[in-house]
């Protein structure tokens, strides 16, 4: 922190001087997200050391976040998966995941529009993470606020469903820019809702050329296989990271 | 409500700074909001004006917000430039999307006038 006196331009750090000098400028350059990012980094290290691939799943309410986890759990053993489930209220999605034998912890934010790193840090001690290979954080349903808020994840996955339209990447670029993988869900409804896959992919590639795009439908269990394979492959990289230590 | 929690956090940082540096009163708070963040300036000002009434240090303070454009450095051709359209985050010179964002992706308190 640099403190400059507007009267004489000095950077005398004497607190008594601040009190008496008028119009002193204090240069802070403080990133508001510093504390969140510090905790997120701690979370990331924890998951990496445990060999747990942490995936932050984001998307609108009803886009298919919980269905994605259920679908993946048909190709990765459920006992290898843990979920931190975020919603304003209720444990509806937690109950769904428990029925699929997936260990799930519910966070209710009440009025909070996204999860943050401190919530994840607090959840870690309450969730049985030993022996798990994958931790899914199902973020609060929202295409705006979760964008760029680090939780300690290795991967960000963004889902948009065909009924939401093919213009979502253009309307909500922030969240798609940060995605490590993009899922188009409810692909079986494309024709019924006039979803144009080529328009969608074109607008994604203007913001994000790297993220693979997967298309899934709960009507076709096999459609989740590629996503599961992608995650297994990504996890093998963090296993290598652990071995270096 | 997104801006409410970030504004509360801004206030916490300022009050901490005031208490650690014996500052009795803040006149202006300068904040930069990057266009790659999702924070709305007017909403932050609105919530700040509600919250500040609870703190003698910032009761009369005003918030001055600058929106920061997105600046990048291309990892492929090393070109540095501004992003004109955040729905098209590609290098103007070589078309790569491998960009290092060097400005415009954060929300920062830059300075206080006391």
List keywords for this structure.
heterodimer; A: 245 residues; alpha/beta; two-stranded antiparallel ribbon; 9 helices; B: 114 residues; alpha+beta; three-stranded mixed sheet; 6 strands; 26% helix; elongated
Q: How would you briefly describe this protein structure?
A:
The complex is a heterodimer of chains A (245) and B (114). Chain A has helices at 15-20, 34-50, 65-72, 92-99, 117-124, 168-171, 173-177, 197-207, 225-244; strands at residues 2-5, 24-31, 53-59, 81-87, 103-108, 134-138, 155-161, 181-185, 213-215.
Question: What does this 3D model show about the protein?
Answer:
The complex is a heterodimer of chains A (245) and B (114). Chain A is built from 9 helices and 9 strands. Chain A is globular. Chain A has a 7-stranded parallel β-sheet, with helices on both faces. In chain A, strands 1-2 form a two-stranded antiparallel ribbon. Chain A has 245 residues and is of the alpha/beta class. The model of chain A is unreliable at 14-20 (pLDDT under 50). In chain B, 26% of the residues lie in helices and 29% in strands. Chain B has a 3-stranded mixed β-sheet with strand order 2-1-6, covered by helices on one side. Chain B has a 3-stranded antiparallel β-sheet with strand order 4-3-5, with no helix packed on it. In chain B, helix 1 packs across helix 2. Chain B is elongated and about 55 Å long. The A-B interface holds A 1, 3, 6, 15-16, 18-19, 23-33, 35, 111-114, 144-145, 147-148, 169-170, 173-174, 177, 203, 205-210 and B 1-2, 5-6, 9-10, 13, 17, 21-24, 27, 36-38, 86-90, 96-98, 105-114. Strand 2 (24-31) of chain A pairs antiparallel with strand 6 (107-113) of chain B, so a sheet runs across the interface.
């Amino acid at each position: 922190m640099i403190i400059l006196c507007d009267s004489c331009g000095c950077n005398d750090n004497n607190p008594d001087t601040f009190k008496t000098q008028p119009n002193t400028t204090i240069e802070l350059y403080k990133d508001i997200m510093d504390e969140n990012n510090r905790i997120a980094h701690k979370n990331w290290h924890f998951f990496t050391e445990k060999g747990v691939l942490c995936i932050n799943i984001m998307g609108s309410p009803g886009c298919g976040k919980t269905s994605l986890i259920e679908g993946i759990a048909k190709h990765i053993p459920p006992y290898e998966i843990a979920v931190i489930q975020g919603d304003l209220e209720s444990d509806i999605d937690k109950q769904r995941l428990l029925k699929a034998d997936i260990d799930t912890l519910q966070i209710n934010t009440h009025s909070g529009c996204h999860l943050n790193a401190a919530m994840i840090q607090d959840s870690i001690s309450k969730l049985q993470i030993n022996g798990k290979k994958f931790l899914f954080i199902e973020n609060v349903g929202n295409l705006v606020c979760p964008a760029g808020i680090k939780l300690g994840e290795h991967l960000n996955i963004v889902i948009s469903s065909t009924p939401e339209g093919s213009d979502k990447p253009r309307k909500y670029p922030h969240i798609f820019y940060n995605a490590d993988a993009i899922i188009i869900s409810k692909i079986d409804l494309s024709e019924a809702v006039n979803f144009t896959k080529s328009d969608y992919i074109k607008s994604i590639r203007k913001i994000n050329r790297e993220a693979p795009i997967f298309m899934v439908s709960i009507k076709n269990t096999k459609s989740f296989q590629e996503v599961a394979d992608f995650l297994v492959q990504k996890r093998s990289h963090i296993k290598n990271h652990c071995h270096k230590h | 409500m997104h801006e409410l929690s970030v504004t509360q956090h801004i206030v916490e940082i300022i009050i901490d700074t005031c208490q650690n540096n014996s500052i009795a009163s803040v006149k202006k708070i300068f904040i930069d909001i990057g266009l790659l963040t999702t924070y709305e300036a007017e909403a932050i000002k609105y919530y700040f004006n509600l919250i500040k009434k609870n703190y003698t240090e910032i009761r009369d303070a005003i918030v001055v917000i600058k929106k920061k454009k997105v600046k990048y450095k291309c990892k492929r051709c090393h070109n540095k430039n501004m992003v004109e359209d955040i729905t098209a985050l590609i290098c103007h010179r070589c078309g790569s999307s491998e960009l290092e964002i060097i400005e415009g992706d954060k929300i920062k308190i830059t300075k206080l006038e006391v």
